[in-house]
Amino acid sequence: MEFCENYESPLGLLTLTCRDTGLTGIWMDRGACQAALPHPILEQTCRWLDGYFAGMPEPAASIPLAPPGTPFQHLIWKLLLDIPYGESRTYGALARQAAAALGRPRMSAQAVGGAVGRNPVSILIPCHRVLGSGGQLTGYAGGLDKKAWLLRHEGISFLP
Predict the structure, then answer these.
(1) What is the phi/psi pair of residue 89, to 5°?
(2) Residue 30 pLDDT
(3) Are 65 and 80 in contact (CB under 8 A)?
């Protein structure tokens, strides 16, 4: 069973989803839950988001995660979780990390970008911290304006 809750954020309405096994999504512009079903994981996620938006550098996060995805996507999302608050990485740097983790000589930055773009747990799995080579602001499923807001919120410099 999937549980759903709405969260009002400085970015607008966020839709949070989970199963008993963990958080499955933090969605922007998805539309409100029609029949909100509270769950302790969603309550914990709301507290985390409260801290994040209040400017806590990295709220304590022991939220169980259970986003649907392929093993490759999960690898990339794990690498995203390793990017500290207030820092960024490029797609190329993530590709090098992924290649090393998979024992390959190299990895396509485009493949990494595809996995980053399919991250269903935005903000908490910080895909907004990934920039193009040279620090350029690049795609974000929630919109570039929201990515720019999140980067500014964390004090991360980027090129428009």
Answers:
(1) -135, 160
(2) 78
(3) no
Q: Which residue has the tokens 């499923």?
A: 141
pTM above 0.90, yes or no: yes
Give SS3 for 2: coil
User: Can 127 be counted among the known catalytic residues?
Assistant: yes
Rounded-to-integer distance, Cα 104 and Cα 13, Å: 40
How many residues make up the chain in this entry? Answer: 160
3-state secondary structure of 79: helix
From 50, 38, 74, select the one nearest 123 (Cα to Cα).
50
Which of 4, 18, 46, 127 is labelled catalytic? 127
Residue listed under structure tokens 């500290």: 84
Mean pLDDT by 10 residues, the chain (160 residues): 94 96 92 82 95 83 92 97 95 97 95 96 96 92 95 94
- 9-12: long-range contacts (C-beta < 8 A, 24 or more apart)? 9/49, 9/53, 10/53, 10/149, 11/142, 11/146, 11/149, 11/150
